[in-house]
User: Fold this.
Amino acid sequence: MNLPRFAATFSLLAVFCVTSQFAGAAENFNIDSAVQSAKTKSDHESVARYYEDAAEEARVKASEQQALLEEYENKGYLYGRNAEDMKARASAALHKYEKATQASNKEAALHRQLAAQLDDDSGKPDGKAFSVAK
Assistant:
């Protein structure tokens, strides 16, 4: 009786392990090498999109931590002795995610600016971006 249950559990575990490896492939985007090798407009735009997505994820996590912090502050009596520790952890996480959001937005803006200065996908500067106004 336990053998069929064990077999079913094992097969589900095997399926989850296999699919999780493929799901992580999109997340394994090596941003460091992408930044180093970015030479064309589309390269810089893809790096900017990566940073914009990272900023959005950090913003969502920051709002979750803000909601937790408010919960702990308003209803600390529900959490007993742990309330102060939970507030401190939520506050630290909130600060960390806010800094990550700012840093990612700054990097995205930089790469958007670099992409705007490049002419199409040739990797050469656009003449208009460097012209002197008369």
Q: What stands out?
A: Residues 30-117 form one domain. The chain has four helices and no strands. Residues 20-26, 129-134 have pLDDT under 50 and may be disordered.
